[in-house]
Amino acid sequence: MHKNKIAWLGLAMLSVGICSGQVVPPVEIQDTQMQTLQRQNINSLKLTGQQILAHHFAFPFYLSQKLDIDQQQQLRTDQNSLRFELYDGQTVLAISGNYYAAYSQKFDEEQRAKETLLQVILPILKIAVSHFGENSTVQGYAVEISHHVVRKSIGLSVERPENMMTFLPQQAAIALVRAKSEGQQEAAMLHAQVFLNAEPLSIWLSEGGTRTAKAVPHKQAPTAQESPLARTEADLVKAVDAPVSPAESAPPLSTAPKHDDVQSPAPPPRDTSKAALAALQSANHDLTGRVMKELDAQAHFVSYAPPAFIIFRQGIYLELSINTSLPASAAGSRYKLGALAFDDHVAHLIRPLLGYFKGEQNFDGIGISTTVHLAGKTGTVPTDSQAVEFFLPFHALHCYERYDCTGQQLIDAGTVLINGERVGMDLQNAEAYVH
Question: Which of 219, 318, 321, 344 has the most Cβ atoms closer than 10 angstroms to its Cβ?
């Protein structure tokens, strides 16, 4: 009986150790403020860690503060990971771990990062936000994941780690995990910071033509009888390019239509200098003149505000200024007026406009700035107005042009300003609003 009690006690202690093993002990945190937060939220942290490990990932995943270690070493390593840290002066919940999957080198950085975001980081964020989304102290989430990529080196293919860090402010994280479409996911990711091997990276989630990278399980560390360089290139290529069965991999969240087989590498950052803007203005002068002349009857361009190339959110957009007139019966909130302006006016201009901009362009999208006028009771005298701006990237515009995306998805992938302030716009709900 005594031995049974001891055995039971040992099992209970082991169980407690396993359940709390994902959380960094408060005493190991140097910053006193973060240490206090760790202690105050220890139960929520433990539950978060348990749920992360209970999640079925496509390939083995371990919480760990140590990255870039092989799987056998990981099994012998402290797997504490969840902790509070300061990131750019903000209090964040930091989570790190090793994901034992390897991507073929034929997939570019964005494809690999996108797959790890969808397969690993997004499930982790869903769990973390469910516990800390209403915690006013937590200002964001920093998730760092190490995955692997097979590259060629001195004629042979070798597997090497690649580290991805994603930071999202609290509200952006909430919007991402609650998103119902790729467009909404992408709108949330506009607020994210993504780094691959410490280099900034942009990820487009709703862009058509993106082939999702497929990974294979990361191989165990070779024994003394098996050197990584001893494996033939043919063996590695066969292993990396082998199809992944449904049992091995959860399907990617991406459902965007695939129009091409291979995605091009991410373009270099735009040159947003004054000289570059002037060159664009000059090169497109005749074309924008034609647009103003041929579409004016439909667009109602503002005559004193000709098309201009402007910088918006590190990109270059062609801004077109128009007037939108709505009947007095459309009275309602500014959101309702903005939504009606899009559906009744702006949306009808998109396909005609894109007819003038075929193929690749040297700028990022089109900005449509409209002053929305609400007619008076007579139907002729404007009694109210709102300034609404739609900044719409080309990849989303072309998706809409092909009828592959809805107007809501186009809105979600872009940016909307009303009277100079950024807003979220739900077209259906906004238009149903009764003033």
Answer: 318
| C-alpha to C-alpha distance for 378 and 17, rounded to whole angstroms | 75
pTM: 0.49
Cα–Cα distance between 55 and 57 in angstroms, integer?
A: 6
Residues pairing with 142 in the sheet: 94, 167
Specify the pLDDT at position 263: 39
Q: Give tens-digit pLDDT for 189-239.
A: 989 999 999 899 888 776 543 445 667 676 543 333 333 222 333 333 333
pLDDT in tens, 154-178: 667 678 889 999 999 999 999 999 9
Q: What is the mean pLDDT of the chain?
A: 79
Distance in angstroms (rounded) separating the CA atoms of residues 241 and 141: 34
Task: Measure Cα distances from 30 to 23, 87, 95, 143, 282 in Å.
Answer: 15, 15, 17, 20, 57
C-alpha angle with apex 199: 415 to 258, nearest 5 degrees?
55
HEC-encoded secondary structure of the chain: CHHHHHHHHHHHHHHHHHHHCCECCHHHCCCHHHHHHHHHCHHHHHHHHHHHHHCCCCCCEEECCCCCCCHHHHHCCCCCCEEEEEECCEEEEEEEEEEEEEEECCCCHHHHHHHHHHHHHHHHHHHHHHHHCCCCCCCEEEEEEEEEEEEEECCEEEEEEEEEEEEEEHHHHHHHHHCCCHHHHHHHHCCCEEEECCEECCCCCCCCCCCCCCEEECCCCCCCCCCHHHCCHHHHHHHHHCCCCCCCCCCCCCCCCCCCCCCCCCCCCCCCCHHHHHHHHHHCHHHHHHHHHHHHHHHCECCCCCCEEEEECCEEEEEEEEEEEECHHHCCCHHHHHHHHHHHHHHHHHHHHHCCCCCCCCCCEEEEEEEEEEECCCCCCEEEEEEEEEEEEHHHHHHHHCCCCCHHHHHHHCEEEECCEEECCCHHHHHCCCC
Quick one: pLDDT at residue 17? 41
Backbone angles phi, psi at 421, to 5 degrees: -110, 135
Share of the chain above pLDDT 70, in %: 76
Q: Give the C-alpha separation, 190 to 392, whole Å.
A: 13
